[in-house]
Amino acid sequence: MAVEEIVSGVYGIGMGYVNAFFIVGEDGLTLVDSGLAKKKDTIFSAVAGAGKQPADLRHILITHHHVDHIGSLAALKDATGARCYVHPADSPIVRGEEPQPGPNPGSLLGKLAGPLLSRMSPPAPPADVDVEVGDGEELPLAGGIKAVHTPGHTPGHLSFLLPSKNVLFVGDAAANMLRLGLPIGMFTADREQAKESIGKLAALEFDVACFGHGRVLKGEANLRFRRLAEKLAR
């Protein structure tokens, strides 16, 4: 586990192949995604590394319903009473009312590896959703956060823009592993929607992009997104 201060007051938590982030604000801590199951103590250790306490966690923004992003949500809510924010299209899965979908059967890798991966990834414990968030909503958290509906990876995927820091929390609307590109195909429900969502993000203003998978982009990150959007549109 590694903790990095990305810009003043914004921290990244590396948990192997997946990342979570938290923002230090006057209204306490806002966490973006919760990692896999049994990562509560990992997240609390990261919070302590920033000089804060678990009780400071007030809000949890969920980008989408995949288990590597909601796995520790229920445990964190139970421990802190934090409120969580989810798009209505993904909230039934977060609540446990609908089953977690498997890898995209339209992907060759999904057909081959999907059954094995489904057995290896335990389901996330269901968690209450306190606030359902739609496209363009301005959330009065951490000085103001804008929710951007970016479907494709999942129907209810959200990205979050923090204008005061010029930071975009991309979630899995895109990935920056070997290079900036589309999210992993075998876990993406609708590839064409994912392309459109990258174009939507490219129209925003931000300097730093934080991803669920891959490295943070610092310095005119929006220009990188615009180049990618142009490439995907060809």
Short description:
With 234 residues, the chain is an alpha/beta fold. It contains 7 helices and 15 strands. Helix 6 crosses helix 7.
Q: Could you list some keywords that capture this structure?
A:
7-stranded mixed sheet; 7 helices; 234 residues; alpha/beta; 6-stranded mixed sheet
Task: Summarize the biggest pleated sheet.
Answer: 7 strands, mixed
Helix/strand/pairing category: alpha/beta
**Average residue pLDDT:** 92
Number of strands: 15
Oligomeric assembly: single chain
Helix proportion range = 25-40%
Strand order of the largest sheet: 1-2-3-4-5-6-7
The ordered H/E elements are: EEEEHEHHEHHEEEEEEEHEEH
- The low-pLDDT segments are 108-113
- Count up the helices: 7
Fraction of residues in β-strands? 25-35%
Shape: globular
The radius of gyration over CA amounts to 16 Å
How would you describe the overall organization of this protein?
There is one protein chain. 28% of the residues lie in helices and 27% in strands. It has seven helices and 15 strands. Helix 6 (191-202) packs across helix 7. The chain is globular and about 50 Å long. Mean pLDDT is 92; it is low at 108-113. It is of the alpha/beta class and 234 residues long.
How would the blueprint of this fold be written?
Elements: E1 2-7, E2 10-15, E3 18-25, E4 28-32, H1 40-49, E5 57-61, H2 67-70, H3 73-80, E6 83-86, H4 91-95, H5 108-120, E7 131-132, E8 138-139, E9 145-149, E10 158-162, E11 167-171, E12 175-176, E13 180-181, H6 191-202, E14 208-211, E15 217-218, H7 221-233
Parallel strand pairs: 4-5, 5-6, 6-7, 11-14
Antiparallel strand pairs: 1-2, 2-3, 3-4, 8-9, 9-10, 10-11, 12-13, 14-15
